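Appendix B, record 7
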Amino acid sequence: MNMNRIRIIPLLLLLTPHGNLLFPQEADNNVKQLLSSRDYFTLEQQFCSLEGKMQDKSLKWIAKAMLDIRFNRPHDALNALETLLIFYPYY
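Structure tokens (predicted):
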């Protein structure tokens, strides 16, 4: 019985290299919380590391557009909004 446990633990570690399978919405929840609290400076700092871990791609583009608007990057904001409208029109 102990040998079965020893075989399962490495398998679980392979399936969850960054914990994304155990907590897939943690990055999404962090971004939602920062957007709702309007903490754009913290979101700007953390967005690069959170972006790859996000499950909800429409939320990624919403956050990117908001950051680009808030930090006066209108061309990037238009690109993010265009992507959001083309690929996620029903949100």
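Remarks on this record: The chain has one domain: 21-87. Residues 11-20 have pLDDT under 50 and may be disordered.
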